[in-house]
Write a structure and sequence with these properties.
The complex is a heterodimer of chains A (484) and B (440). With 484 residues, chain A is mainly alpha-helical. Among the domains of chain A are: 1-207, no CATH class; 268-326, no CATH class. Chain A is 51% helix and 6% strand. Chain A is built from 18 helices and 6 strands. In chain A, the strands form 2 sheets. A 4-stranded antiparallel sheet of chain A has the order 2-3-1-4, covered by helices on one side. A two-stranded antiparallel ribbon of chain A has the order 5-6. The longest helix of chain A is centred in the C-terminal third of the chain and has 31 residues, at 453-483. Chain A is elongated and about 115 Å long. Chain B is an all-alpha fold and 440 residues long. Helix content of chain B is 74%, strand content 0%. Chain B has helices spanning 2-22, 41-44, 47-68, 70-100, 107-117, 120-126, 128-136, 149-152, 157-166, 169-200, 203-211, 213-231, 244-269, 279-310, 313-321, 325-345, 349-352, 355-377, 392-418, 431-435. The longest helix of chain B is centred in the middle third of the chain and has 32 residues, at 169-200. Classes of the chains: A mainly alpha (484), B mainly alpha (440). At the A-B interface, α2 and α5 of A face α1 and α14 of B.
């Protein structure tokens, strides 16, 4: 006992033989005003909350909060990802399509609610807890078998060991026991460390095997864990297929397909040609152009082979100079000339055009510079440098807006068409920007607002100096390259 | 004989161990003649007025709807019929399920479901007018019954030939007979078994009912799913959804729990089973209502999601039609008021442990169940070559009058059956466990 006195007293427990006697004792303890109490039973006992006066838990609110958090996170995440951060068309649905987001919203709601319930229960119960002072009593082991225990904690305001003991005795409690501090060693036993070490060591083995396989050769055929994933029956680009009559796995667009955001444009806007005028002078030509631009829609007299031939013919047509001269091109940019349009044009010119034509349109982009650099080492010498956009023959008077648009769309000489990469509106914006570039070489000081003229003069001098230096450097580099 | 003794012994074990564990003051079951076990006279006397009034209202509702056009009239009738039979089938499922999982808690309310499920038998007679449309004319209700339907709507001949191999008058009739045979047999088997036990207290009856519950539930599911395909889905003959039977069933099992709650509440109001059914049983019924509200949503959304994602015209047609005009409004109403509102409203334990609130939510959900059935059937009620609409106030009133009429009639019939037996299975071996049942 003397030893026990030094140890902390946690409370008093009593043992009961049946549920009924336990519940009765619970009610007495509750009525006596004790608050910090607990009951221990081998199985869930209905009604014990009420008997012991346990207050309703706030766990449902935690679960509700976590569940709602899950819903909100799932929706915000998906909407932000697929609508704003990385808009991506999936299965032809709008970027923001709620039905597609519902399954994940549902799953995250359930997941977060379960986490809330599980970890919330832990937190409210003060878990994880590896030991409890009650375990010091060997009789307490029977709580998992056939005995019922009631416990009053020493930190209860009304706690008085004699009174509690008396109450337990009155209610039929046996083996009333003062619960003392658990003095068993709290060091983690060595075998546990060894076990963990073993588990960790074993877990490295597969990794080592993989690493070994990465650096050694084997005659054995490769082992396929998921055969159908390694050899998917789906077709890659350009592969053949027996499924379709034409033997190709890749399919062309359904007739009349219009790219997203490309609908509602008139024909003039899409071709750069005044279609009314063209159809007045060359009706079949206009029809071919429409078919080329829109794809095969509407009634078609020719079979598919014929129209394919036709398309090839049309592809060649712009190359014939006669046609290009006679076509009634649009002479004004339908987008106008606003700052917004020009900035858009600058952006797309920078992305698509500048690699060849240079950021200033001078025809000396990265591709050209690289070509000139490596040309002497190549056997073929047929490099056609990209055109400078500052030739007079490309100015608006000689090269209509519509024609420039058509060139960007369909290509010219070695330049490929960009209709597939750049949206119609952006191609028109590039046309506007090219005009601005051209004008920048021919502008007079009078076209600048008077309050900014000084600034321009200063800048002009600076730029000229820079250009001079650049030209010299290029010249030197070219000479050096030629010498080599 | 030895086997019997084993089972007897088994029950003794249940009685001695399980019951004292789950309840602490072993409850006494009242005697067989106790008035608490009888249908209250106030409710019993409603039987005849409900039957007569219901029939009048049904005929009036159908008559008004029929004056709009014949298909509208029969669609209104079918809506009323599906409303009643879905509730009856939900109750039948409830009873079989309790036996399948040997539930203890539900014994005190099971007889209510057992009585309500008998509605499937008189509903077999009320199905005759629907069957009659196939033989009285061409395509009065079901379009596939019209031989010109495929031609007029430019349907592919091969597809239509395949459809009509299943959807034709004679095979449809045979199937309907099979469905009603299965349901009636199951309903009678479980009702007779349970009421038979009232007289004898024979525990072997419970064993027998449990033994057959597995096959019973499989037969039930097959019949119910195919009945939903036949009677509701085939209104749009080219449309199909394998989920449709489950969707109808989801509303059905939800409304079954609702009508049980409403019945218990009203019986207790009139003085019966007040001590047997406690707040704990309301709590459990409430939990099921809460769960099945979400189950309904889950099934409805699963059906919608796949069709929306696949985006194949022959599948989307059905939902597209229900997104237009007044049908679109009803779709939104279903999302907001058949899912969100009751889901939020039934979430709290305090609501579920309040009989008055459970009663109110059950009434509410029974009303919404009508909207659900209406939404399934009425958008297909158009006359040939016309667009379906609720046909204004007249059409809506006719629909409500008709469904109220048929439902009142069925309740009247049910009350007259309930008068003959007790309203609680007081001899069930788990009755004490059920009375003493506690959730927490």
């Amino acid at each position: 006992m003397s030893e026990n006195n030094e140890k902390k007293i946690h409370g008093i427990s009593a043992e009961y033989e049946s549920v009924d006697s336990l519940l009765n004792a619970c009610r007495r303890v509750r009525d006596a005003g004790y608050k910090k109490t607990d009951a221990y039973t081998p199985f869930p006992v209905h009604g014990i909350d009420k008997a012991l006066g346990i207050q309703p838990t706030i766990l449902p609110w935690i679960v509700l909060g976590c569940g709602l958090t899950g819903t909100v996170i799932a929706l915000v995440m998906q909407i932000w990802m697929n609508t704003y951060d990385y808009p991506y068309i999936i299965s032809g649905k709008p970027y923001l399509s709620l039905p597609a987001f519902m399954p994940i919203a549902f799953e995250l709601t359930v997941l977060f609610a379960s986490f809330g319930a599980f970890f919330g229960m832990w937190a409210l119960n003060g878990l994880p807890r590896f030991s409890n002072p009650l375990f010091t009593d060997p009789r307490f082991d029977r709580v998992t078998d056939d005995r019922f225990f009631l416990y009053v904690d020493a930190s209860d305001d009304l706690y008085d060991s004699a009174a509690v003991t008396e109450l337990f005795k009155q209610t039929g409690g046996e083996h009333i026991n003062t619960v003392l501090e658990d003095d068993s060693p709290d060091k983690i036993p060595k075998p546990i460390f060894m076990m963990w070490g073993l588990v960790i060591a074993t877990s490295v083995v597969p990794l080592l095997i993989i690493l070994k396989m990465r650096v050694t050769n084997s005659d054995l055929p490769r082992f396929h864990i998921f055969f159908d994933m390694d050899f998917s029956p789906s077709k890659d680009a350009q592969q053949g297929s027996t499924l379709f009559a034409d033997g190709r796995a890749m399919r062309t667009d359904v007739p009349g397909t219009i790219a997203r955001g490309e609908s509602g444009y008139d024909l003039d806007f899409m071709t750069g040609v005044q279609m009314d005028k063209l159809s007045a002078v060359d009706k079949p030509g206009a029809e071919r152009l429409v078919r080329l631009t829109l794809g095969p829609i509407g009634p078609q007299d020719e079979g598919p082979a014929d129209s394919a031939e036709e398309e090839v013919g049309e592809d060649d047509a712009p190359k014939a100079p006669g046609v290009m001269e006679t076509i009634p091109w649009l002479t004004a940019n339908p987008l106008g000339n606003s700052r917004e349009v020009l900035e858009r044009g600058q952006k797309y010119f920078g992305i698509y055009c500048s690699v060849c034509h240079g950021l200033n349109g001078g025809g000396n982009g990265l591709v050209n510079r690289r070509a000139i650099k490596i040309l002497p080492t190549q056997k073929t010498q047929n490099w056609i440098p990209p055109s400078s956009l500052h030739q007079e023959s490309l100015y608006a008077e000689n090269y209509a807006e519509g024609k420039l648009f058509s060139t960007i769309s369909n290509g010219i000489r070695k330049m490929p068409g960009y209709a597939g990469q750049i949206k119609t509106k952006d191609r028109w914006a590039i046309v506007a920007y090219v005009r601005a570039l051209q004008q920048s070489r021919n502008a007079t000081l009078d076209s600048v607002p008077s309050d900014r003229q000084e600034e321009i003069i200063e800048r002009q001098n600076q730029v000229q100096q820079e250009l001079q230096e650049q030209a010299e450097a290029e010249k030197a580099a070219a000479e050096e390259a030629a010498e080599n | 004989m030895a086997k019997m003794n084993d089972k007897e012994a088994n029950h003794t074990v249940i009685a001695e161990i399980l019951i004292p564990m789950s309840e602490h003051d072993t409850p006494q079951v009242k005697s067989a003649d106790d008035p608490a076990f009888q249908l209250p006279a106030t409710l019993g006397s409603l039987s005849l007025p409900l039957c007569i009034g219901g029939l009048v209202a049904l005929l009036a509702g159908w008559g008004i709807a029929n004056s709009i056009h014949a298909r509208f009239g029969m669609s209104v009738y079918l809506t009323s019929f599906m409303y009643c039979i879905s509730i009856a089938l939900g109750c039948l499922f409830f009873v079989i399920l309790q036996h399948l999982c040997r539930a203890g808690w539900s014994v005190v309310v099971r007889r209510i479901a057992e009585t309500l499920m008998l509605m499937v038998i008189p509903l077999g007679i009320l199905f005759l007018p629907i069957l009659g449309t196939l033989f009285a004319g061409e395509g009065i209700l079901y379009r596939w019954d019209d031989p010109n339907h495929a031609l007029e709507n430019h349907l592919p001949i091969i597809a239509w030939a395949e459809k009509t191999r299943w959807l034709n008058s004679s095979w449809f009739t045979i199937r309907a007979i099979i469905y009603f045979a299965i349901w009636s047999a199951l309903a009678l088997f479980y009702y007779r078994g349970s009421t038979g036990q009232d007289a004898t207290g024979d525990k072997a009856i419970t064993d027998r009912l449990q033994y057959w519950s597995g096959p019973a539930i499989m037969m039930f599911c097959g019949a119910t799913s195919f009945a939903a395909f036949d009677w509701v889905m085939s209104l749009a003959p080219m449309w199909f959804s394998t989920m449709f039977g489950v969707y109808v069933f989801a509303g059905s099992i939800l409304s079954a729990h609702c009508i049980i709650s409403v019945s218990v509440y009203l019986l207790q109001k009139c003085g019966s089973i007040r001590e047997e059914v406690t707040v704990e049983h309301y709590h459990d019924l409430g939990k099921y209502m809460f769960g099945f509200v979400f189950f309904w949503t889950y099934i409805a959304f699963s059906q919608y999601l796949l069709i929306w994602y696949g985006n194949i015209p022959e599948e989307t047609e059905w939902f597209y039609h229900r997104q237009l005009d007044s049908w679109g409004t009803i779709s939104i109403v279903l999302i907001l008021f058949h899912w969100m509102l009751p889901f939020a409203g039934l979430m709290s334990r305090h609501v579920r442990r309040n009989p008055k609130l459970i009663f109110s939510w059950a009434i509410y959900l029974l009303l919404l169940h009508f909207v659900d059935i209406y939404w399934m059937i009425m958008p297909e009620s158009a006359a040939n070559g016309a667009e379906a609409s609720p046909e204004g106030v007249k059409g809506v009133l006719a629909s409500i009058l008709s469904v109220t009429g048929m439902f009142a009639f069925m309740i009247g019939v049910t009350l007259s059956i309930a008068k003959r037996n007790r309203i609680i299975a007081f001899q069930d071996p788990r009755i004490r466990e059920s009375i003493a049942f506690e959730n927490i």
